[in-house]
Structure formats: C-alpha cells, structure tokens
C-alpha cells in the first residue's frame, strides 16, 4: 500500500487549498483577486510546463482578457484582438485531440464536446472574416468560461465548487489524479 502512495501524480500546485483558492479567484469577478489567481497559474505553468492542463491554461487566458477589459487600459480594437486570440486558441486546443487522420469539421467536433456552435462560428470569423463586435467577443468569453467551469473545474471537485469534504486527503488525491485530464477526458 505504501508503494502505491509513492506513485502519486506530481502536480504544480501545493495542495487542495491552493487549487481551490485559484479556482475561486479566477471565477470571483474581482479583478484584483483574479490577477492574484493568474499570477499563481503563471507559477504553476513555470513548474509544470507543457503538462499544464489545457483547461487551466485556457481559463487563465480568458480571465486575463476580462482583467484587461475591466482595467480600461486597452482600446476596443485591442480588446477584440485579445479576446479573439483566447477564443480561437480555446476552440483549436479543445477540438485538436478529437481530430483523426481524416479532417473533421470543427462544428461537428464542438457539438461532440457540447461547445455552442456559435462559438465555433465566432472563432471562424475571428480567423477568416471580419472582426466581430467587442460585445460578441465578451459574450463568447463568458460562455466559454462557463463551459470550462462546468466541464473541467467543477468536475475536478466532484461537481461542487463551494463545499468542503470531510476527508481532504481523498479529495486531494482526486484533484491530483484528475490533474492530467486532457481533452479526451472532457467528453
């Protein structure tokens, strides 16, 4: 039994409390707390490198856009580009692993993982068409962040973002075990 404990997955965060704090910080709506959570995610990324879960990385990029937006430092066009890059990256990364040897349309892949089709259409406009309005980019960001919260973050904590469990060791093991969730596991 001791040997099994030694084979635990190594993760970038210190423990369950840090994971919870970052998750709550990212989704709280307070720019200062969001920035602190973003700083912590940056530290995780420096420790974890390419093993960083895509959902954490995408969430951080989208929240970074919201923080920049609320700061009032960027012009509308710059915000559209910032949101656009984060949204394009999200759709591409989430659907990338589902691509087989045969090219499958993004709309079909998005439907399979329950991403709204209009988000894929927004990604298409950002990539190939005329830039959309800022309001649409903001809406896309909110929808994608909600999708990430429901599909990834809640799942890491047993579909419960707020309540603490009595057995924290088991929960920490659950967070560590799920840390390596990739796009295939999000189905």
From TrEMBL:
GO terms for molecular function: endonuclease activity. Residues 163-187 are annotated as: Disordered. It comes from the Eukaryota. GO terms for biological process: maturation of 5.8S rRNA; maturation of LSU-rRNA. This is LAS1L protein. PANTHER family: RIBOSOMAL BIOGENESIS PROTEIN LAS1L (PTHR15002). One of its GO terms (cellular component) is preribosome, large subunit precursor. InterPro entries: Las1.
